[in-house]
Hints:
By secondary structure, the chain is of the alpha+beta class. The protein has 2 domains: about 15-45; about 50-105. The chain is built from 3 helices and 6 strands; from the N terminus they run αβββββααβ. It has a 4-stranded antiparallel beta sheet. The protein has a two-stranded antiparallel ribbon with strand order 2-3. The longest helix has about 30 residues, at about 15-45. The protein is elongated and about 80 Å long.
Amino acid sequence: MNVSQGMRSVQSSDAEVSIRDEDARTEQVKKKVAKKTKASQSTSSSKELVLMSTESEGQRFSIILDSETHITGVRAQGGYMMFHVPEELRSRVMRHTWITEGKLVEVE
Length: 108
């Protein structure tokens, strides 16, 4: 038998074809589940508080709540400092003097 591209050299049985179809379906289901879990993880991270400094091109700084709790900021576009605050520290951070004075504002 002369084999060229696009031809099958061996005829597949119906069982083999159905197994391949099932494998393709399970792969599609796995991808859908992965997308759903990724979407749910991104919404769960939205619980954290995001703060942005009001001064651009200022010095880098951290929010210090006590001797053991520091929240380090990252430089955002435009030279602003951005802080991602975990949900469990939200109430403590909202009472910080930089927030009450307006040096840091909450970002939606």
